[in-house]
Design brief:
The structure holds two protein chains of two kinds. By secondary structure, chain A is an all-alpha fold. Chain A has two domains: 260 residues, MetI-like (MetI-like fold), CATH 1.10.3720.10; 281 residues, MetI-like fold, CATH 1.10.3720. Chain B is of the alpha+beta class. Chain B folds into two domains: 226 residues, Rossmann fold, CATH 3.40.50.300; 113 residues, Nucleic acid-binding proteins (OB fold (Dihydrolipoamide Acetyltransferase, E2P)), CATH 2.40.50.140. The radius of gyration of chain B is 24 Å and the shape is elongated. Classes of the chains: A mainly alpha, B alpha+beta. The interface between A and B is medium-sized, with 24 and 33 residues.
């Protein structure tokens, strides 16, 4: 009888294969990004003829961009934190009417996307034609009330539409705090204020600080709002500057690459600090155990707190959607309604215009395949990282999670540069976009699937093995059926993420591979505002349908797990 | 010890297992005879489960040999590592590992389907197995609707239905409540005898180990402390760790009084007087430790008749605990614990303590 060798088993081969694929997807573009950043010879020559650090030194010639980026990021992070903290405290700790509703509504702005928010707020708040400013002037005001094209305007939109992560993080900290800690303080005779100051605040502080750092890093890499609101006034932050440098003629690729490299180094360091804060700073609050938070009776104050919630939802959901809807059904959008101005032609156009339908079709196709291939690939990766105990699986985890700390725009930049010289001509096709999506969404998919996988007792798979089932049979009969709700959730998340993707798509789509989100941006700058509004609403509707299926599925799945 | 004529079914030789840098098992060797029920007993972290999982093939050892029915399934020297599914073993998991997306029937049929048996055969074998664990009426239930005890029975049926050559048990009863555990213990023992399958059983529960096993291996820190029959392990613990872990024992330390040795008994000068005990062939040095089980002492108001091992003591504490009474007595400057069914003596009263020298066991240091 031939004796099998130690290591050549099916999971080991699959593991090696998947590791190589993930490594290629992630590291190949990063390598080319670095190569371009260090290229100081002829920018057209590939591979570069000379290497050096001059491109990084050249960044100092753009102090305005660095200043702009910091201004916008700090302002946006500060606003997001104030909102996040307030909302988290209100919704977990105060007896405000309708808390459950608001808590679920808090994720809606995130699904609406910063792009949609920026379009809507641009309609509302540009100095001359913004609806709010028109009304303000009609009421006798002079000049304008708000200027959404300013640094603080951009920061405002970012905070509203990308800041919900602050709420989620701070809310999690507040929920994971044992109410007995506060009760103990009160039993010892401390007043409510003293308890708040001496117990509650110190306990949640590390979590809040962590959220602050994390949100700041997010804002550094933010792209859509700065693009839509900053470009008209030539107000550039680092991401939009990189975009501009690659799109202008002649492009300044090495400079853009140096800018991108610096940005992701800064983000990497920031996220490292975040991890340090979270692991070192948190006391006993994060035990992984969920407590029923103690709800304070805030008396009359609760109506004020309720109005804060309502204000937030109006600014981030109701007003933007109504604005877009209102603009999309007018011939020429203005703040004041007139029957003669009403039309449905923009929706008709959006559904018939070749460019729009092709882009939407392409996006749906990409969404479908990104989700389908992604779930397979990311499911395998999750299994290898968390189940196989193959040597090197933690290295795979690092590689796979890497795209998280790189803005998608910069990743796409590396990819553009990498695949341009790839022997198979996929540049400018949907295939490149598919590869890009599969790469940048690796962390999202792996995290979603592994979250469910870790809840499944490992012995369920081991037992199948002990019953004599081989690897493939095991995966098919035990792992996949148990993982099914998680896989469907991941599929829908990937689908939604693909449909609304902007940062990577805008650099990588070619004239024959248009997708919906960058097309919306193009339409905004090149053709009519009203048509753009209609397109954005259609995209939102597609996303909304997918999200409601997602919610229904996850609710069914959690009900299944808890019974 | 009598050698078994038949070849051992499982042979484990010099097994080493590491978790990263941390050694979990540090050189363990033992055999299991065909049809024998062997138990690995020890506190958590002693390496017993790791050893079991290495036999199963779920854990890769760093060195050693494992043979099943004479054929190597793992050998570091000749680089053999047969995957778990090809070793022909079966296992009952601590968490039962009942697949929630299958019915009871499908759970039990799994191993037969893997082996591509015919539908008729599968139905017949599953029904017979379910009968043996009295779960036939639940055949078509969803597995998630079962109670803990029922899941345990299904897990058991699933484990033996395809007639594996070895059954491995990883603390299968630890998730059941105390009363159910006592019942299942007996049922499991009977079933094991009826099936006659070689089995290795892991537990940290002493009573379970004593009741279930032909032989027990006591482990600590990745090493074997003692191998023996339940009777042997309980009555002749090899060292202080085994004496203490396997039941409750009093350890008495003192000096050897060779001048007083008589009738094959060893004399020790302890804190409260001279104690006679048995050496069981263990080396007798100058400093000795005796072990006496708490239940082997007896306490009386009147002086007993025996000549050896009788001492006057003072009752310090006396606690009635239902099934037994626990009393602490001062014996010189040492405090001894006595358990028995006697009526509690009043605290502070004087009494006589005695123990049969055969129950006093010399320990290895």
């Amino acid at each position: 009888m031939r004796i099998p060798r130690l290591s050549f088993s099916a999971p080991a081969i699959a593991g090696a294969l998947v590791a190589v694929i993930a490594g290629l997807l992630v590291l190949y573009p990063v390598a080319y990004l670095l190569q371009a950043a260090l290229n100081v010879g002829d920018p057209e020559a590939r591979p570069p003829t000379e290497y050096g650090f001059e491109n990084f030194a050249g960044l100092l010639n753009y102090p305005q961009i660095i200043l702009n980026t910091l201004t916008v990021s700090v302002a946006a992070a500060a606003m997001a934190l104030v909102f996040g903290f307030l909302m988290a405290w209100i919704l977990t700790r105060a007896n405000v009417p309708g808390r459950r509703f608001f808590e679920q509504a808090m994720v809606v702005p995130y699904y609406l996307t910063p792009l949609l928010g920026a379009l809507a707020w641009s309609l509302l708040g540009t100095p001359e034609s913004g609806f709010l400013n028109q009304v303000y002037r009609a009421l006798g005001g002079s000049d304008y009330l708000i200027n959404i094209n300013s640094a603080y305007g951009i920061a405002w939109v970012m905070a509203l539409f990308e800041g919900s992560v602050a709420f989620v993080m701070i809310g999690a900290v507040m929920k994971s705090m044992d109410p007995a800690l506060e009760e103990a303080s009160q039993v010892m005779g401390a007043s409510r204020w003293r308890t708040m100051l001496r117990v509650t605040l110190p306990l949640v502080l590390p979590g809040v600080l962590g959220a602050a750092v994390f949100v700041f890093a997010e804002m550094l890499g933010s792209f859509a709002a700065a693009l839509v609101l900053g470009l008209p006034d030539r107000y550039y932050v680092v991401t939009t500057a990189i975009y501009q440098l690659t799109q202008q003629y002649p492009p300044k690729i090495p400079l853009a690459a140096a800018m991108g490299t610096s940005l992701f180094v800064v983000m990497f360091v920031t996220l490292f600090i975040y991890r340090r804060i979270i692991t070192a700073g948190s006391y006993v609050t994060i035990t992984g155990k969920a407590f029923r938070p103690r709800v304070n009776d805030v008396g009359r104050l609760r109506w004020l707190l309720l109005s804060v919630c309502v204000f937030y939802l109006v600014c981030s959901v109701v007003l933007p959607l109504l604005t877009l809807l209102y603009a999309s059904i007018q011939k020429i959008s203005t703040a004041f309604p007139a029957a003669s101005n009403f039309t449905t032609e923009h929706f008709y156009k959006a559904f018939t215009m070749n460019a729009a339908t092709t882009a939407l079709g392409n996006s749906l196709w990409l969404g479908f395949w990104t989700a389908t291939l992604g779930v397979t690939l990311m499911g395998l990766i999750s299994w290898i990282i968390y189940r196989s105990r193959l040597p090197g699986s933690n290295i795979i985890e690092y590689i796979v999670m890497f795209p998280q700390s790189v803005p998608r725009l910069i990743f796409a930049f590396g990819m553009m540069w990498a695949w341009l010289i790839f022997p198979i001509p996929i540049y400018g096709t949907l295939w490149l976009l598919l590869i890009a999506y599969l790469t940048v969404f690796l962390p999202l998919g792996v995290r979603t699937i592994s979250g469910v996988m870790l809840q499944i007792d490992k012995s369920l798979e081991e037992c199948a093995q002990m019953c004599g089932a081989g690897w493939g049979y095991r995966i098919r009969t035990v792992t996949v059926p148990l993982l099914w709700p998680g896989l469907i959730a991941a599929w829908l998340l990937l689908f939604v993420a693909s449909i609304r993707e902007l940062g990577a798509s805008i650099l990588l789509m070619g004239p024959h591979s248009k997708v919906i989100t960058p097309s919306i941006v193009e339409s905004w700058f090149a053709s009519s505002t009203e048509l753009t509004a209609a397109m954005a609403l259609i995209q939102t509707l597609v996303v909304a349908i997918a999200v409601s299926i997602l919610l229904a599925v996850t609710r069914r799945a959690t009900a299944h797990i808890t019974d | 010890m009598a050698e078994t004529a038949r070849k051992p079914h499982i042979e484990v030789k010099d097994l080493h297992i590491h978790y990263g840098e941390v050694p979990a098992v540090r050189g363990v060797s033992f055999d299991v005879a065909p049809g024998e029920q062997l138990t690995l007993l020890g506190p958590s972290g002693c390496g017993k489960t790791t050893t079991l999982r290495a036999i199963a093939g779920l854990e890769q050892p760093s060195a050693g040999d494992i043979r099943i029915a004479g054929a190597p399934v793992y050998s570091s020297a000749s680089r053999v590592n047969i995957p778990a599914e090809k070793r022909g073993l079966s296992m009952v998991f601590q968490s039962y590992a009942i697949w929630p997306h299958m019915t009871v029937f499908e759970n039990v049929a799994y191993g037969l389907r893997v082996r591509r048996e015919s539908a008729a055969q599968i139905a017949e074998k599953v029904d017979r197995a379910l009968d043996m664990v009295q779960m036939r009426p639940y055949r078509d239930r969803g597995a998630s609707q079962l109670s803990g005890g029922q899941q345990q029975r299904v897990a058991l049926a699933r484990a033996f239905v395809f007639q594996p050559s070895v059954l491995l048990f990883d603390e299968p009863l630890s998730n059941l409540d105390a009363k159910l555990r006592a019942d299942m213990r007996i049922e499991l023992r009977e079933l094991q005898h009826r099936l006659g399958i070689t089995s290795v059983y892991v537990t940290h529960d002493l009573e379970e180990a004593l009741a279930m096993s032909d032989r027990i291996i006591v482990m600590r820190d990745g090493l074997i402390e003692q191998i023996g029959s339940p009777f042997d392990i309980y009555n002749h613990p090899r060292n202080a760790f085994v004496a203490d872990f396997v039941g409750s024992a009093n350890l008495i330390r003192g000096w050897h009084r060779a001048d007083l040795d008589e009738d094959g008994l060893i004399a020790l000068e302890g804190p409260g007087g001279t104690v006679y005990g048995m050496a069981h062939g263990r080396p007798v040095g100058d400093a000795l430790t005796f072990s006496v089980r708490t239940v082997h002492f007896s306490l009386s108001v009147q002086k007993p008749m025996s000549e050896r091992n009788v001492w006057p003591v003072c009752v310090e504490r006396s606690v009635f605990q239902g099934d037994f009474t626990q009393m602490n007595v001062a014996w010189g400057d040492q405090r001894l614990t006595i358990r028995g069914t006697m009526e509690p003596l009043p605290e502070g009263s004087d009494a006589w303590l005695t123990v049969d020298p055969k129950r006093v066991v010399l320990l290895e240091e």
